[in-house]
Amino acid sequence: MGPAKRYASDVVDGVESAVSKKALIGPKFDARGQEEGSMRHYPGDVDGGTNDSDMEREEDSGVDDTDTDSDDAIARGDNKGQKPQYEKSRVSAQDIQLATEAAELFKSNIFKLQIDELLQQVKLQDLHVLTVEKFLHKLYDIIQEIPEWGEKSFDEVELFFKGKVVSVPFCDPKPSSSTQYKFSYRTPDVSLIGSFALKSAIYQPQGSSIDVLLTMPEELFEKKDFLNFRCLHKRSVYLAYFTHHLSILLRKNGLDFLHLEYTYFNNDPLQPILTISCGEQSASEFNFYKTRFSINVVVGIPYGVFDSKKLLPNKNCIRVDKDNNTTPTPFYNFSVLSCSTHDHYLKYLYREKKQSEAFTEACVLGRLWLSQRGFDSSMSYSNSLGGFGHFEFAALMAALLNGGGVNGNKILLHGFSSYQLFRGTIKYLATMDLCSQGHLQFHSDLDSSVNPPSKYMAEGFEVPTIFDKTTKVNILSKISVNGYSMLKLYSQETLLMLSDVVKDQFSNIFLTKLDKVQQVNYDLCYDLELPTGRELLSKFGFLEKVRFTSFEAFWINKIANVIKIALADRIKAVSIDLVGQRKVFPLSKRKPAGAINFTSIKIKMLVNPMESEKLVTKGPSNSDEFAAEAAQFKNFWGKKASLRRFKDGSIMHCCLWSMSSSEPVITSILDYVMKQHLSEDAVLSAQHTRKFHNLLPLPNLPGSSKTSLLNLTSFQNLKKSFDNLYRIIFQLKLPLSIKSILPVGSAFRYTSMSQPVPYAYSNPDFLQDVILEFETSPKWPDEILSLEKAKAAFLLKIQDQVMTNHGDQYNCYFSNDDSIPYNLDIVTLNILTPEGYGFKFRVLTERDEVMYLRAISNARNELKPELERTFLKFTAKYQASIRHSRTMELISHSFPFLSPVIRLFKKWLDVHLLMGHFSEELVELIAVKPFVDPYPYFVPGSLENGFLKVLKFLSEWNWKEEPLILDLVRPEDFEDLTETSLGATDLDSRTMKKLSERLNLQQYKSIQSNFNSLRHEDPQGLNVQFFIASKNDPSGILYSRFVPLPIATRLTALAKVAINLVQLHGLNKQTIDLLFTPALKDYDFVVKLKSPTSLRLSSGILSSTGFKNLENQPTKFPEDLNELSEKMDPTCQLVKYLNMKYKNSIIFSSHVNMGASSQKGDENVITGLIRPVFKAPLKFKANMDCNVKPIDKETVELNKDAIFHEIAAFGKELVVQFETN
Amino acid sequence: MGHIEMMKSGFFVIPFKLPKYDVLKSDKPPMHYMFVKKHQNKIQQEANCLFIVNLPLLSNLNSIKSSFNNICEKFNTVAHITELLYHDEFGLQDVDLSVLTSDLLDTNDLKDKRYTPNNTVLLKFLDEASLDNCWNALRKYSHMPKELVQWEYSIPSVSSFTNFYKHIEINWLKENIHKHMKLFEEREQQAQEQVQSTIVDDDGFTLVVGKNTKSLNSIRRKILNRNPLLKHSQKVIAPSIVDKKAKKDFYRFQVRERKKQEINELLKKFKEDQERIKIMKSQRKFNPYA
Lengths: 1221, 290
Description:
- Chain A: Residues 24-90 are annotated as: Disordered.
- Chain A: It comes from Eremothecium cymbalariae (strain CBS 270.75 / DBVPG 7215 / KCTC 17166 / NRRL Y-17582).
- The complex is a heterodimer of chains A (1221) and B (290).
- Helix content of chain A is 41%, strand content 14%.
- By secondary structure, chain A is of the alpha+beta class.
- In chain A, the strands form nine sheets. In chain A, strands 3-4-7-6-5-14 form a six-stranded mixed beta sheet, sandwiched between helices. Chain A has a five-stranded mixed beta sheet with strand order 20-21-24-23-22, sandwiched between helices.
- By secondary structure, chain B is of the alpha+beta class.
- Chain B is built from eight helices and five strands, in the order E-E-E-H-E-H-E-H-H-H-H-H-H.
- Chains A and B meet through helix 3, helix 4, helix 5, helix 16 and helix 25 of A and strand 2, helix 2, helix 4, helix 5 and helix 6 of B.
């Protein structure tokens, strides 16, 4: 048989002949031109089964009609009174067609244009393709020169390779010398396969690989060679012989720059292949170093040489022992079968590509989507998201073009646009279960007329299945069940993104690389060390060897099963990766590593926050009916399993776990089961999770260290106490009756940095704000000072009555409030409850707003900004706070991790001395972003994940150009979406309500236009940096209008540094410590303070080192309430006045929560940042408002020495150290 | 830096030595510089004043008196300081909300109200002679910087910070409110009487209007327009009833016009999107590997 060189297109077209060798590559270039320009289907045509070509013709003419129509329209409309210019109108008409097409065939205009740009970006460079093709021709020539070699026994083979550089990459178990069959080399059939051949290959920065298939001639095999590794060993010898001669010939041809190595195809240890790459640049015309391509030489078995029925997944093909012929060998069977079908599938896909114009583009989109999420075609043991790559996506798409529905109805049509094909495939993955509930069946016969349609069968095999009836291959053999559930989750999320009509999700779908920082991508990450290799190997018995073929695959499968049973619905998905795997190996080696090819194991999971902290793992109930299950349960859980009676009277087998403030329940479960089922010495490290948990201030409450992070009891207690007081106040008889009592303090929405602790009055959050509104009255004074006095008079009345009726339990006092600048007459009534909490009441009237607005309108122009600030402060404190509190409280019920994440983020800001510059609301709105707008990630399911996502968002937020628009409702679940799409007519009231709560396009656009108009005036963001809008505040500036520019940029810079650190060094003790260490060197000067009184205890925070018995929390308030002030933070007043005094020239920062920021709660630090204007000499002016010294008769400069002396004098009793940088 | 007696704008430079603090390490003796000028103004209240720029932290009448007297002493002269005008170190009085929001307080003198820049003060002397004495002494002092006067800061204690947390005495509060409300009522009464006596129209009706409540609607609109939160939002004009009722597809030309408009809009949007993409492309927004 002569050397038959084939290219897919020749074969498909039925021209299978010995064409000239240039044909190997040739057709590639004219293929594009040959493809028929078929028109695309519009969405309405999905179910139409009419003849494609007819329809095309009709549509063609239709389009022509509109063409001329619109031509005229434009000519008439745009060139009024002028002679229509042919050229111009021609372009417009084309544009109109493009525009209509884009709007109807794609999600939107902009989406289509973005897809076009993206495809352009990832296109392979023509020059690179030409260069590598030149080498491919050469390679082809060289292959023809390799001498044939035949009928050698195993010993002869051994002898041949003895002393040679190249060794035979036999897979385990290696053949013995008693082997009967013979090994030979005959010139192969050479062809290109894979995406390069299909022309759906894309540019990848790390370089792309080109697969060259050498099909061994049929005569080298016997019928039964599929058994017991025979064909695989024959192939290994074939590859080694080929490699040996290739390396000699390459040297002879002066191609020394090439580097040859063995590796495994898709990391399948049964499929060794040869990779050819360019080690260095050289002058040779065949050098393709610059193109970054590498070439995989895959040795294949001819299609159909073995009976494919015998290689079905449930068959046994490794028979050593006569008794053991029943254990299925699915991995082995797949490996043998798939290496004979490379060529077949290329032809199959090529046929689909020819029929569907947008097929290639959709393949590229799918490939990008998959790779951004970490999916590829490799075996699942080597990459937890392996088994679903470009090929599988394309094959699925091809199957769906030929059916795929329950009745074999077509899911995709050949006329679809690339967007429609992509969306359809994603939708199929998202909605159809291919694992436990059903599978997809298709035919890949190359003659499409005999192919029955693909069909979804409602029968699941508990393994992901897309079964090809023609080749008997399960396309999804390589993917694990876990990998498949991850794929499904991502598809569902992407479908939601694709259905989002409000926000542009393009970059979230295609452009973001998700697995850059794994702690951002996964909720929990663990390192599992299994120290005793021998113990592990002993569990890899004969049956396991037959079933899994590789030790690694066996272990991954075992761990995955244990985790799945142990954690059940506590997690959404898990992925398990081997660390330290060697994938390539030199030609002189038989395999990449010894018995164990990994050093440790990484377990990463997505948590289901609603279930993750459950105290009890429930098993079967205690009855004879479930005896088998009970035995299984006890067997799995060992001594942890116990019988318990529940409140409803049922008795069940279950496991009880203990809560901890420093680690999630999942960690303790995992730790237990790993020791129980893998090895006593298994070490599960979750250090960083513990570290993050411990960063949250621990409240000084009984049992707080045994309380879960998600437990909100401390907040609930405060709320209960408030409810009692609420009832009392509502019953009071007052001249005006009370309309509403609205709690707005941060503890009511679970976001105060430290948890509320009774009698912890040094905590800056101790007094929780409450807003009191009376029924409307026209009698409120029309003047702010008197209005405040009148309000105070009402508060006095309340105080009087509370003290008269409940004076034995409650205690009241009044204090001045300086939260609204220039309004020095606000008085608040502070009520201390018998439960030990404090509430601060302030009165809001319908007249307040008008007062502040009137002040703006009456003021001189230069005062207006100050009065606007006053107005914003008032709005934020009195009006928006009500909406904000309500929204945040509501939303935190949907997101269990929101509260701890916000609290940790506040702590981080306070550590970095920024908390004092932001309002609590602003901080909360930033922190809620990853929860309400999580795309492309999932909603955070752990403390560290939420926190890192907040930092990641901040580090990437380009606030000069992008607004942050938040939709403060629970994001749609996938189920919600499918519900509405199924029965669009019977929208129930709940769905309607939900729809109305969501931000709609119009609202979104109006907020966007607010932002645009703001940036139009202030393009650099000098006045407002963070535009953060929601339905509560469409203006976007309420909380951020007066954040100083240097502070805003510092926040961004700190977040960038933090994310870089985590990306480079991962999370460990050192990096987390660094994350929470303030960079004091960045400031111009630093003043360290020490207060004479320690506030830690009276702030309600448990010190990590203190003795518990000394830390009894006070159980009552002091008799004389004026003693309260002795345990208050003096430093915060000092900073406040410094900022007032030097507001023009220096920005001072300090820790807001002194009680929580040092060991004893008596240390603080003040840092100063000199505004850049004052760093250079200035012209002297009487109104320059800063402390200066003269340089000459006209110029002055900041008198730093004098300022430092003033600070030292101001805080004389507190300052302990002064550093200037 | 050479010795500078006087700024070009006529301010004397008055240096003071500063006390030493252990926490501060400074090689040169630290100095504070005040800038002083004679205040010239026709307002009676501000006669015999010095205009001082850059007072040290927490200065008060006593601390200024003592240091200025020290300077005067050096040159054997005496100056009697009586008052410190417009002293508002922390800018608490920058804005008087009451005046800005009230009908009753006289806002006519808003324009006459003095606005002195932050970090400046007027130092009032008993008479011109005192002022001249001090002025001459300062001139000489700024001449010979060798014998400097030391400035003594007034240093707050820790409890002066924690005192900010102290409660308001209830009785004091009651009295204060009582006093204030009484005053307010009086003012209100007075204002009403005044208004009633002045504006009685032809029909004998009395018009009761305040400056801020002339016509409620127009005033409210004017005030509401001041809302800084609405500064950047676009105003939506609701379609009038006539517009709502008119048929839009009655004439054929209307249909044709509408179609044309739709196509033009589509095209316009398409062009806009293309522009947007161009901008995004120039910002390298399409790199999936960034």
